[in-house]
Structure formats: structure tokens, C-alpha cells
């Protein structure tokens, strides 16, 4: 495959695209409940430290491979490996990344479909005046309704793939330029509302004043894993975007901007969520149900609760939509590398993801007793193994390829920070990021 001629229209478009890939369920759904289960501020500080030491260097490694290769992930890895005198089998890492994203998107579409249902329910005022038992029972009934789950999964996936089919400039870039600012606007609006609630001060203290006795090895490992998951590294998605990166753009500055924007979403979402939770005297450690059970209960007791809950689920839907669009692109780019048209590649990805997503959607009802591995159903498998094992394994191999296999001149030119800057980055990746990534992988395996 020849080098791609497509480019992002501006430096801002690239940053918004990578941020769109990173910002999603990890920030608005996963971060609050993981922070809630792991002590709040202590977890937050360790998480930010690992974003700097682990996430950003590996993100730069992934993007620079795409920038150096200017092809789809599989083709870029193969061509660069041959150039370096290494095995051409490195190209299979690109296919592994596409498979990882495929698994993640199949459950991502299902959970994002939940946000559609809860957005409609919030607008209709279905949670107003409802008891905690009623809201919990309603969520259980929703999960047990295969027709609703499949419909929402299908609707969300179609929303996603129509944009991907339009291409980089007309599809991804145009929607990112529109939706990412809207997403941040809604977040700031929710944070401003949170400042008026009685739990705002408690939420700030809980998020920013660490209680060091809460810091355990388990908290450190969770922070490490979340830092990896939230930046969308390890699946070659950012490699695909690096291929479209403008020649004159600074890669380190872009990576830093993405990390800051990504962390800010998690913090603003945490402030908004925990302010409401503490206002109602509820437990921040309610786990994955925090989003779809605890928050509707909390908002139902507040003035204008239905309006603010609707804003929140609109925010969640936008975040997951932009993330899904940006995660789907590498799979389409990989198939295009085999010579298929974008429309055909998009159709194949859509049908494949939809089919596996069906198994995830039906895991709560029709095939609830189907547990093919480790006593887990399909949803539990695809929502745990790919993010906990496949992503760190992919990130580990990407970091090794960029820091140990790529020729020094090729990597330095793609990084674009001069010889001294390149050596500093390479040292951090080799001796800090790679060992930390290995720890994340081992913790996922164990």
C-alpha cells in the first residue's frame, strides 16, 4: 500500500481527533467509579503521575510510528520493520490492535446504547419522584429486555459508522470540530451546577485532599491500568491518526494537550458526579452502577433534577459517540490497507462489530447462562480481557518497537524534538514506561 495522502486539516483537528478517541466511557463512566472504589484523591494523584510516566510516552511512541510510516497500522509496522532490518512479522501487531479495538467497540456500543435509553428516560421525567428501589428495578428490567438492548446497540453503531464512512476530512474531522467543544461546554455547565449543591465542598475535598492511608498496592495498580486505558493507547488507533498528522505539528505538544484535555474531562465529570452523590448522602464507591443507578436516584431528589440528568446523559452519549467514531477508524484503515474501498471496509467492520455486540447485549437476558470462559458471559469477557490484557500487551509491543527496533534517525525525525529530546524520550520509554506497562499487563493477567 502506498503512503496515505490524507491529512488532518489543521493541528487543532488532530488534537481533537486523538482527544475524541481518548475521551469516552473511561473518563465519564469508569473514572468516577474506579476513583470511588479506590479512595478518591490518593487514586487521582497516582493516576495523573502514571499518565505522565506511562501514558504520554507510550502515546508518543504509537503516534510516531504512524507518522513515520504514513500508512495504515499493519502496513506501517511492516514497512518500518523491513527498513530497520527487523522481522516483517511486526506487521501483525497492527492486526492485533484492530482486533483489540473490535472487541472493545463491540461492548462499547452496547453500553453507549444504555446512554440513549437513559437520555430519553431523563427527558421524559421517568426518574422524577421514583424511589431507589424503583430505579434499581427499572435498570434490571432494561438489561433483561433483549429487544431494547439490541435496538439501542444497533442505533448507536449506525450513528458511528455513517460518520466513519464519510472519511477523515468530511466525517471524523467535521464531527470532532463540532462535538468536542460542545462536550466540554456541557461538562463546564454541569460543573457550574455542581458548585451550587451542598456536596460540592465535600466532593472537592474527597477528590483533591488525599488520605494516604487509602493508598494500597491495589490502588496503585488500578491507577496504572486506568492511566493506560483512558488515553486509548495500545490498540494502534493513535497509530492510524499519526499517519494523517500534519508534517509541521509538534508531536510532544500534541500528546501533552491530549493528556491535559483527557484528565480535565475526568476531573470535571468527577466533580459533577460526586457533588450530586455527596449532596444526597450516597456512597461514592457504588461501582459500575454509579452511572445508571446511583446518579438517577441522586438527581431525582434535586430541584430541576430531570433537566440536569438529561444534560448529563447527553454528555455521556456525545463522549461515547466521538470515542467510538475515532476507535472505529483504525479498523477501517487496516482493511483499506488490503486494497478495499472505504465504503466496503466500513460495511464489513459495522456488520462484524454489530454481530459480536449482539452477544454482549443478550448476555443479560437470552444467553445469560452462556459462560464460555472463566465462568464469565460474553459481555464480561469483552469488557474485561481487551482493556485489561490486550491494551497493555499492545502498548508494550508498540513501545518496544518504537524505542528498540525503529532506526534512531527515523524515530527522531518522526518525534521532531531534536537529538537531545529524542534521547530523553527514548530513555523514559525504555527504562520507565516499558517496565510500568509490563506491570499493568501482569496485574491484568493475575
UniProtKB/TrEMBL annotation:
Membrane protein topology class: Multi-pass membrane protein
CDD domains in the record: SLC6sbd_Tyt1-Like
Molecular-function annotations in GO: symporter activity
Compartments where located: Membrane
Major localization listed first in the record, in broad terms: membrane
GO cellular component: a single term: membrane
Database matches in SUPFAM superfamilies: SNF-like
Residue ranges of coiled coil: none
Bilayer-crossing regions: 12-29, 41-65, 92-111, 149-169, 181-208, 220-244, 256-278, 307-328, 348-369, 389-407, 428-445
Assigned keywords, A-Z: Membrane, Symport, Transmembrane, Transmembrane helix, Transport
Source taxon at top rank: Bacteria
Family: Belongs to the sodium:neurotransmitter symporter (SNF) (TC 2.A.22) family.
PANTHER family: TRANSPORTER
Protein name (database record): Transporter
Organism (species): Vreelandella subterranea
Record lineage: Bacteria, Pseudomonadati, Pseudomonadota, Gammaproteobacteria, Oceanospirillales
Amino acid at each position: 500500500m502506498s503512503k496515505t495522502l490524507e491529512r488532518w486539516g489543521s493541528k487543532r483537528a488532530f488534537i481533537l481527533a486523538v482527544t475524541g478517541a481518548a475521551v469516552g466511557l473511561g473518563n465519564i463512566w469508569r473514572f468516577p467509579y474506579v476513583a470511588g472504589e479506590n479512595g478518591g484523591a490518593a487514586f487521582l494523584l497516582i493516576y495523573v503521575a502514571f499518565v505522565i510516566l506511562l501514558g504520554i510516552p507510550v502515546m508518543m511512541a504509537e503516534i510516531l510510528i504512524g507518522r513515520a510510516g504514513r500508512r495504515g497500522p499493519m502496513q506501517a509496522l511492516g514497512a518500518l520493520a523491513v527498513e530497520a532490518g527487523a522481522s516483517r512479522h511486526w506487521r501483525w501487531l497492527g492486526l492485533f490492535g484492530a482486533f483489540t479495538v473490535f472487541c472493545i467497540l463491540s461492548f462499547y456500543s452496547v453500553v453507549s446504547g444504555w446512554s440513549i435509553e437513559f437520555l430519553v428516560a431523563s427527558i421524559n421525567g421517568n426518574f422524577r419522584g421514583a424511589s431507589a428501589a424503583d430505579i434499581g428495578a427499572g435498570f434490571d428490567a432494561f438489561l433483561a429486555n433483549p429487544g431494547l438492548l439490541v435496538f439501542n446497540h444497533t442505533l448507536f453503531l449506525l450513528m458511528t459508522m455513517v460518520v466513519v464512512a464519510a472519511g477523515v476530512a468530511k466525517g471524523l474531522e467535521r464531527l470532532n470540530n463540532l462535538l468536542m467543544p460542545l462536550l466540554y461546554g456541557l461538562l463546564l455547565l454541569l460543573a457550574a451546577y455542581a458548585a451550587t449543591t451542598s456536596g460540592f465542598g465535600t466532593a472537592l475535598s474527597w477528590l483533591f485532599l488525599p488520605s494516604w492511608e487509602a493508598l494500597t498496592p491495589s490502588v496503585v495498580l488500578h491507577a496504572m491500568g486506568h492511566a493506560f486505558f483512558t488515553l486509548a493507547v495500545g490498540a494502534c488507533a493513535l497509530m492510524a491518526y499519526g499517519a494523517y498528522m500534519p508534517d509541521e505539528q509538534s508531536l510532544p505538544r500534541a500528546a501533552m494537550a491530549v493528556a491535559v484535555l483527557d484528565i480535565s474531562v475526568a476531573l470535571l465529570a468527577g466533580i459533577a458526579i460526586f457533588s450530586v452523590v455527596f449532596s444526597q448522602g450516597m456512597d461514592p464507591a457504588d461501582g459500575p452502577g454509579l452511572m445508571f443507578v446511583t446518579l438517577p436516584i441522586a438527581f431525582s431528589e434535586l430541584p430541576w433534577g430531570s433537566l440536569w440528568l438529561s444534560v448529563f446523559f447527553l454528555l455521556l452519549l456525545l463522549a461515547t459517540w466521538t470515542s467510538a467514531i475515532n476507535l472505529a477508524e483504525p479498523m477501517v484503515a487496516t482493511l483499506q490497507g488490503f486494497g478495499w474501498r472505504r465504503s466496503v471496509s466500513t460495511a464489513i467492520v459495522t456488520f462484524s462489530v454489530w454481530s459480536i455486540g449482539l452477544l454482549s447485549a443478550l448476555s443479560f437476558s437470552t444467553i445469560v447462562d452462556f459462560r464460555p470462559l472463566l465462568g464469565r458471559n460474553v459481555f464480561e469477557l469483552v469488557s474485561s480481557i481487551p482493556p485489561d490484557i490486550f491494551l497493555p500487551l499492545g502498548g508494550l509491543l508498540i513501545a518496544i518497537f518504537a524505542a528498540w527496533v525503529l532506526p534512531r534517525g527515523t524515530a527522531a525525525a518522526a518525534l521532531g524534538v531534536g537529538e537531545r529530546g529524542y534521547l530523553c524520550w527514548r530513555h523514559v520509554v525504555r527504562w520507565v514506561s516499558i517496565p510500568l506497562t509490563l506491570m499493568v499487563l501482569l496485574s491484568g493477567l493475575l
